[in-house]
Design goal:
about 50% helix
Length: about 500
């Protein structure tokens, strides 16, 4: 009996498309789904003529594979992954490999890999980005696990992955245990930010200039031209969806779409992880909060009748505002990506993953949802300066921001005049303003407030300098003021 190269468990569209992708690259595939009917439909439908074998039990599936066996799970994150692993473990041998291709929480991946290691079974948590189309023709893949485990799947993953313009496969070994799923989580958080920034731009063009969906679609198409700094998959599809007519009315589809955006959790995980790691990601957080606000439809309908916004149209040259919108969107995008990469760097340090930020950016250049032309520039900057403190410290980005920051400020002002909220745009601007402030006065005030009510202590700046005073051993010298005493003496702590 012919044995198979790899197995796919879970035959929703993503699983089916990955199986078809693998078969198209010359690999023999075995598939299994919890409900046999779906397996049968796939084998008799889309898999006809392909080197794909349907199986109807896990025992049959495992028995059809060449050792060391490689099995990829494409099931819902959480309990279903654990259940699948529990059923597979008794059927596997030492050195076999389980791959989780879902959007699992990275800590679950760390836990699962640790447990399976004790049994001699290899485990990889792999981020898969690109949606249904990517799964079929080439996704961006972010595998995390041991190098031994990655070696077993490297050829298959390299074959099925998307290829950047220079031919580089959009896959590489991200790092140990949960690194792959953490990187995919941050990818999704950045995706939230991108989508919110584009949405705020479209909303402003509509309200400030009165542009309809078709005219806005034309602007998106113009910005997506090759060589433009905003050229990206999300800008491309924004142009397409804005131009789509509604088949049941004389309106554009976007104009009759309910203003509710759902989410599956990866954006929330990104923000929660950032809070845990003490890394500010305000643009991503604003995007998550905006999705949450979109679901408060009843409250919004009520308050819109009680809170007067007094909007007014932009009175200047429309072309000037469109130009400002272009530059504002790019600057805000740089700010958002800087936040995401700072989070990756912090997690790498905490968990000892040794993340290569340039290689991660390179792997996002094709296949994934956030693929964009400027990711090539990010790749170059991190390759030239692997220890770059912040993406915006690179002259390639700092020079652009410095030369065009007024565009972001002007765009936000025009949006607010038109009654359009810009939480993500505003957060991107505030991130830039804060991270480039040698002294944050708000932090000075808060430090004194905390010392007053809680005796928490504070540090002091050097004389005539924004730098913090140090002890001889190089640590910060801490002070406390005795606020309740009449002369308020100050003492070193």
């Amino acid at each position: 009996m012919k044995t198979r190269d790899i197995a796919l468990i879970g035959l929703a569209v993503m699983g089916q498309n990955l199986a078809l992708n693998m078969a198209s690259k010359g690999y023999s595939v075995a598939v299994y789904n919890r409900t046999g009917k779906r397996t049968e439909e796939f084998i008799k439908g889309r898999a006809v003529g392909k080197d794909i074998k349907g199986t109807y039990s896990l025992t049959e599936l495992v028995g059809s594979l060449s050792p060391p066996r490689k099995l990829m799970l494409m099931v819902k994150a959480g309990g279903p992954v654990d259940e699948s692993i529990e059923k597979l473990v008794p059927l596997l041998s030492r050195g076999d490999l389980i791959i989780d291709g879902g959007n699992s929480f990275y800590r679950d991946t760390i836990r699962r890999q640790k447990r399976l290691k004790e049994k001699g079974i290899l485990y990889i948590g792999t981020g898969v980005s690109g949606g249904e189309e990517g799964a079929l023709v080439g996704p961006a893949l972010m595998p995390g696990g041991t190098r031994e485990a990655y070696a077993l799947i490297e050829d298959i993953f390299s074959s099925i992955s998307a290829k950047a313009e220079d031919g580089t496969p959009c896959v590489s070994h991200i790092g140990p245990d949960g690194a792959g799923h953490f990187v995919k989580m941050v990818h999704n958080g950045i995706e939230y930010g991108d989508m919110q920034l584009i949405g705020e731009t479209v909303w402003t063009l509509r309200e400030a200039l009165g542009y309809d969906a078709a005219r806005t679609a034309g602007i998106m198409d113009l910005w997506n031209q090759k060589g433009d700094v905003l050229s990206s998959y999300l800008i491309e599809i924004t142009g397409k969806v804005m131009a789509q007519a509604d088949r049941q009315s004389d309106k554009y589809l976007v104009d009759v779409t309910a203003d509710i955006t759902r989410m599956k959790g990866t954006g929330t995980w990104t923000v929660a992880s950032a809070l845990e790691l003490l890394v500010p990601v305000p643009t991503i957080a604003s995007a998550v909060f905006s999705r949450e606000m979109s679901q408060d439809k009843d409250i919004r309908l009520s308050l819109c009748k009680k809170l007067e916004k007094s909007p007014s149209r932009y009175k200047g040259d429309p072309a000037r505002l469109v130009g400002a919108a272009h530059d504002a969107l790019y600057i805000a995008k740089i700010s958002s990506y800087a936040q995401g990469f700072a989070l990756l760097a912090a997690a790498s340090d905490k968990y000892g993953w040794g993340l290569d930020l340039g290689r991660i950016a390179s792997g996002w250049r094709a296949g994934c949802i956030i693929r964009a032309g400027f990711l090539s520039r990010i790749t170059e900057e991190y390759r030239a300066q692997p220890k770059l403190a912040n993406l915006m410290a690179s002259p390639a980005f700092s020079n652009y921001i410095s030369g065009n920051l007024l565009s972001l400020k002007a765009f936000i002002e025009a949006a607010h005049e038109a009654g359009v909220p810009t939480p993500a745009m505003g957060s991107s601007l505030d991130y830039i303003l804060q991270i480039s402030s040698p002294v944050m006065v708000s932090a000075q005030v808060a430090a004194q407030q905390r010392d007053y009510f809680g005796a928490h202590g504070y540090f002091k700046l050097k004389k005539d300098s924004p730098e913090i005073g140090l002890k001889p051993d190089g640590s910060y010298q801490e002070y406390h003021t005795r606020w309740m005493e009449e002369d308020r003496p100050e003492e070193k702590v």
